[in-house]
Amino acid sequence: MARYKIGLLGTFVILLVSVLLVELGGMFAPLKQRLQLQTVPSAMLSFNAIGETLRQLNLLQVVPNEYVYYKHLPATELNKRHRLFQRKSRVDIQLYGLEHIPPEKLPSSTIVYHDDLENPAPLVSVVIDPVDLYDPVIGILSNPLKRGKSWERSAFLSYFDQGRLVFASGIGLRIHGGKSRIAPMEKSFRAYFRSIYGEEQFQPGVIFDERAEPIRHLILHNDRRDNWHLVNPLAYDIAERIGAIVPQTKPVRFFLNGEFQGVYVLTEHLSEEYLFSHYGHTRFTFVRTKWDAGTSQFQIGDYARYEAFKTWATQRTPLTMEEVQARVDLENLSRWVLSILFCAPTDALQGPLLLDMTNPNAKWFWINWDMDHSFQDKYHRVEHPWELDTFRELRPHDPRGALFYRLIEGSPDFRSYFTRLFVDTMNHKLTQEFLHERLAHYEQIAINYGIQDREYIEITRQFFDHRKAVLRQQMQERFHLSSSFACRVQSPPNVQLEIDGFSEQSGYEGWYFETTPIRVKVIPATGQTFSHWIINDQVVTSVGTVIEYPVTADTIIEAVVVQQVERKNEETP
């Protein structure tokens, strides 16, 4: 009998709910029809009365249906217009982008206070529904370890420069980072530009140069590291000067839902879109290498070929230079190593490993990435970070470290090549003028952007003053070299000098090992004639305008140039 009564009650409840759903469906039928019109922008769902009402009734949670529509699409197809779909009520509503809302009316534009625009420094404002940030189930800040397209939320982004709105659009927003996802600090984000949100790319010519365009992904990187700021862009500038491949960056002041988060760094996202922008295609084998052994992430390409390369590279037997050059871009590897040795990041083994699958003769190469632990010991806070031995960070579980040490052990040619590259880089690329100019550049950004604690600037300045001497000593030990010595070159002020193949001026000073002689070429100006050299007060007349000299002690080389004497024609009587 009790079972019979429960059955009748259940039937009654089902009938009642059905009637209510029919009534609600009729009530919201006009609204559904309006939402299917292009004149109703999707922004209304999050920030206008219609969307608020639907959400309060628990009938609407609009998210990009990335998993269904994008799962099997290649990167070049990701930005075509697709539908959004409504998850909770399962009503298939056709939504459209932001074509009818001017950029200055987007929430990310209107939320910025006039006082914040009085500072001319670039400003990025992002506005997102707080539910999409903090909801325990769907919020990206509440679930920072969640990844992928299903954890991308619709938002708005505006970019201001010199107090003027330059660009604004709807975007998709995700959490970005590795261990920083769980750190007690403001998170980094990724912005995705897709037609379902608004613009398909960031406005060209605004933040990066043409090599990075079109910009379809963008990282908003929190560069604050315990009172160390703007480390990544400074380290990237140094790595690029050395000749390594680096992403482009742009420091900005970042606001989230109107609240200042700090100084962030806009950074190229190393993805398939990056490959397409820089190389014109995405047919690469692409592996995100990580610091911890066994955590590298295969992305795209030929996995078997990657595994075969890694197995070969991480063996322990010595290698010749020719063996490595057959498979690896050795110049790229060497310049990556030099950038790591100088900047001394304590989590060095990062950055994509790539192979161009369209070229049958392609060689493996790397892109520098995530150098924000540079110029400091992030983990132990040593008093003199410029004394760090980064040779120890090149560990054998990673192909870069393994190949480097196998070459040192097995190839005299590589030892000579790398020592010469080291000397030329330290003497002619990483000059004190360059290093201190870059540091002054980022110090001024720190001042302009409102960074108060700038003690790290002085520590970095000392790092630049001492690091090269420490590296010379470490090179001497690792490569079994003799001591290094200073060599100064002088000439008349209007005489052009070419030293080691680099254009230099009188007063140049570099440091050399005995196995890396200095090569000086003097180019006299018009009306001048080269006379001779003076080396450590000794006249040398046995060579011409080019001299190659082994530096076995502190040395001064002087090029002596004389003015040509004009001869007058004498008249015959």
Structure in words:
The chain is an alpha+beta fold and 573 residues long. It has helices at 2-35, 43-47, 49-56, 66-70, 107-110, 114-117, 130-134, 231-242, 272-279, 303-313, 321-325, 330-343, 399-410, 412-429, 432-448, 455-478, and strands at residues 62-63, 85-86, 123-127, 153-161, 164-176, 188-192, 217-222, 249-256, 259-267, 284-289, 297-300, 351-356, 365-366, 485-490, 496-499, 502-504, 508-512, 518-523, 528-535, 538-540, 546-549, 555-563. The chain folds into three domains: 34-281, no CATH class; 283-478; 485-563, no CATH class. It has a seven-stranded mixed barrel with strand order 3-4-5-6-7-9-8. Strands 17-14-22-19-20 form a five-stranded mixed sheet. A hairpin with a 2-residue loop joins strand 4 and strand 5 (164-176). The protein is globular, with a radius of gyration of 31 Å. The chain starts with a helix and ends in a 10-residue tail after the last strand. The model is unreliable at 30-50 and 58-97 (pLDDT under 50).
- Estimate the helix proportion, in percent: 25-40%
Contiguous uncertain segments of 5+ residues: 30-50, 58-97
**How many beta-strand elements?**
22
Number of helices: 16
Strand order of the largest sheet: 3-4-5-6-7-9-8
Radius of gyration: 31 Å
